[in-house]
Please model this.
Amino acid sequence: MTLLPDLPQNTALHTALLDLLRQQGVALERGAYVYEGWELHTHPDLVERLEDLAPQWPVLATLGTPVLAAKGIAAVVAWSMGMLLVRLPEAPAEPLEPAEPCPPLTDPGQGWYSLCPWQSELPSAESKRLLALLTQHALSYAASLSEDDSIDWQGRPVQAPGRRRGKAKSRRPSRDKGRRQGGRGRRR
Model:
């Protein structure tokens, strides 16, 4: 089971996402609505929608709720029957249709916004495109909240630049820059 980390950005007073998830979390071993050992707290179609909006990202099963996170910081949550909660520095622009609020996360100034995951007023392809862009924006924003520079925004380890050993060799710039642009050219 993959859980959202207990980082300050997920538990601080103004972003009490984990507290909210813990209040509703019910551990289950069997049943039709078991999600990674917990009672599923969203519609299965919404889980699939979240996966479609960010196919290269793992969905974290957090206390029965699907979550996308960057650097361990929650960015998008599939909530209830028809709501995406997105963490952003500003409210999403029109034409995206908001969903019902989800207090206290969506209270003014909290940084979470509630959106309809289907955007029925837009054509299907446009709805998916706009929501996918917004999801990427939320993931980038969540990563920017991290204090951990040892991992990239997708949670992969960042390697320090290699150090050259010995004396550094200098290169003379090419005199004819036009001939070799875009490739390595022939070695002589």
